[in-house]
Amino acid sequence: MSSTEYPTIADCVGNTPLVRMQRMQGETSNQILLKLEGNNPAGSVKDRPAMSMIRHAESEGRIKPGETLIEATSGNTGIALAMAAAIKGYRMVLIMPDNATAERKAAMTAYGAELLLVSRDEGMEGARDLALAMQARGEGLVLDQFANNDNPRAHYESTGPEIWQQTGGEITHFVSSMGTTGTIMGTGRFLKEKNPQIQLVGLQPTDNSSIPGIRRWPREYLPRIFVPEAVDLVLDIDQSEAEACMRRLAREEGIFCGVSSGGAVAGALRLSQQVENATIVAIICDRGDRYLSSGLFEQ
Which residue intervals define the domain Tryptophan synthase beta chain-like PALP in the entry (predicted)? Predict the structure, then answer.
């Protein structure tokens, strides 16, 4: 018998590549680097907080083996939690708007999660309300990525340190789409502790845009983990701009990702036009294969 201790799938979350953009940035004194979170086992940046929220809930005695977990999701967190629940042996109930892509729904059920759908009009707000109502009825525990500090904690403990190490501390700007805001809150806190001069740039959709994973929340639904003053600059990204950048990333850089990642890179490119000699890191939060049925890549 070999004495080698092999990793589990949970051990493979994180330590994702950081690659430089080669063609789209054009002539510039800046360096734009992209963190490929689609390389995580379940395919997105959300693998990090999913494992973190379950692991810390276990260590604090808030959940026990065999219990039911509930979460509202637009897609990536649901897939990541479905994977985490499969690893840990929990029943996972996910609630999401019915306009999510077929690939996202299929991935969640492939991991064994149960899916409840709300209407597109109810949206994520309706999904979040239903999750809390189910918890109040004793039907399971809501992990609540929007208010759970173990969400940004995952990025403070992993994403931030990885970026700092991978750039040799040379990062000047961090660009991230904002949904739950866990990525920018946790990563940003770590980076600011290392160098307060690093600028944190968040992306939100324009008023009439619908971009999976990026939200402009009504005030009553604003994630409790979000600290607005911690973000140095917020850029509004139009849906068409995010989608066009997503398609360009695939065709010009060989980076196959989703719409929110296209938005983050569009923001990084816009930022690059305003600064010099900067090292800009943007998050590529997932892979493009979970958007194929939407037809977005056919244009």
Answer: 10-286
